[in-house]
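User: Quick sanity check before I run a bigger batch. Here is a single chain. Can you write out its predicted 3D structure?
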Amino acid sequence: MSKKLNAVKLSSLGSVLLLFIASCSTPSLEDVKTKDEYIKRISALSENELQKTLKTDLDSLNSLKEEIDGFNIYIGFGMSMGNGSGKKDELKSDSVFKINTDFNGIRKGVAEYTQNLIFTQKPELPYSSFEVYPNGESANVSKDDLSISLKKLYVKGQAYPEDKIGMKRVDSMTVDFSYEYPKSVKTFKFNPKDKKAIRYQNKAISIYSAEGEELEFDVPLSLYSDILAYQALNADGVLMNSNSSSAIPLTTINPGIKKDFAEALVVLKAASKMTDKDAIVKELGKIPAELFPKIAQYRSFNAKLAALDKNEHLKGFEAIKQMKEIIAGDKELFGLEMQRISLKFPDQVRELVLYLAEDREKITGSAVALANAYSTSYGTYLDRKADKYGIVDSNFNIVIPASEPDLAATDNTGHYYKSSKADQVFHLDAKNRKLIPIKKGYSFIKDLSDKMTVFMDSNKYVGVLENDEKEVIPFEYDEIEKVGNVLLLTKSKRGRKKREIRSLDNKLITELKGLSTKSYPEYGVIIIEDELEKLGMIDKNGKMVVKPIYNELVPVDQQPLLVYADDSQRYLSGILKGDGTKLTPPIFGHIDDFKDGMAVYRPAQEEAGKSYGYLNKAGQPVLSKYTVAYGFEAGYALVFDNDVFSIIDTSGKKVRQIPYKVLGDPTISLSGKQTIYEIDGKKYNYIGQPIN
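Assistant: Done. Predicted structure follows.
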């Protein structure tokens, strides 16, 4: 039987692909669910009927085997890596792919990763699931290539196996890890044009399509794991990187089921050559019993796909989600054997170049992972047996039993949830252990206070409800933001933005006609800009305190204090108080935010290489001047002066020196709320202590 292509939901969102490839047939065995039923049916036939049935069954099973041999499902995402818009005569040869040969750096990176493992726990019944990952980055090691398996879970020092943990809150775990990397690479070149398959060693690469700049081919998973990179040569021998690629696992029929089909065909062929009925029945008894329920399951799966294909309202990610659910429901049917690779290059491909790992080194070991902080007061959990969702608190105690078919938190505190299937938003009443439905069509946006909440209605306008019921701000705005003690509201009117400042009970304070705004909620101020691009300020109570006359106006302290620049001194800044009073004239080259009462500043003119210093909140220079200075944290700051990195306290005293061999700019990052300095490859905390 010839194969045909069925496309189930050829939906596209960006580069999302959802394809089903198989032929469809209706074998004569469709009424038979078990082997015993089949033998009973065969035994009841006359010899003439038996021969006709054997021929029909052989043809049907042969067609069905062809169908499952050609069966593939793939669901995936393409990744664009360039615009591919260059003309052919502009093509420049890309660099030849090379592996990282800093093997000591790789080993060091793996050691650093595995000494800083953390995990997140996803509460589920009958037992939780976990994701373990390194807490940090490494230039030499990819997190994705680090394989981690759980050993034991610990709750307050007591060990549990994974399947006995339930929803107990785990604080640490032991894991095994492995990291494999190539030490040498081999290239394999071939011209894919007009070829159906290419062999590499004893493995076949099937060419699905090869047209101009685009290629699609299937490789066995065992070979795909060795492929490190792809490049191509055009007709002029120019080496090209691909400007888009995707690699999608092909779901095929389980090899065990294919084997049962092959054995059944051998039996049917042998039986069809026999004439004695008893001998035929005895021979048919050799058909694997598992085959019959799998045929029924496969037909049921095809029926579900057909129903999915007919649903005209199902598109994009929802189609993908349902497709995955169908596959998961019949997972015993499937296996993974191949990977489909799709590539596009800037020019027509003469030869494809595959880079394959030839010699590998594997690093293995054991480590301890610590729990990542659970950031919300409440969250969802899944009861896998019931396939329902409920809500737990931060210690994973059940607040709402699992009763919803789908449920997802819509805020970062865990007080609002949405059921997509029911298109319903709920508010969690944790005290009374209830999910209270919000008005249909409303979506949670953010809390303004314990009682006031911003929602979006079905028309995509936002408004404010008090206690999730009473409308305080009507649903006619594009944006609502709380700044200090007031609300900044924005709505579109005849294509123009209209901005208002209102009190929390919806009383109009100011209508900002012709003004654009930038809010700083952390400082409780709103910076305004007029038609002449001059800047002013509105305070936390909605009062205009600084008229729009400045070229620069940025809050740098809670007081508030602001950095300003005006027309009197171009490119220089000064400090302005929150009431509009100038604390200093514009005499500084640059001023940072205030931290611990001091702000890093740069003078208008350098003094013998001393480029930075500190200002107090009176705008007065304090401490010394330094070649480079950084902001304070908890009473300490990093400075560089006289070729030495030092940590100083708020009096300017140098409390610690940080050594280095190779001078370079320090890397500054945050770990939680604490600053981490990296100098010459070594890390230090905010007071200059080395971090292992």
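Helices lie at 35-43, 47-69, 103-114, 221-224, 255-272, 277-284, 291-310, 316-329.

User: Great, the batch can go ahead then.
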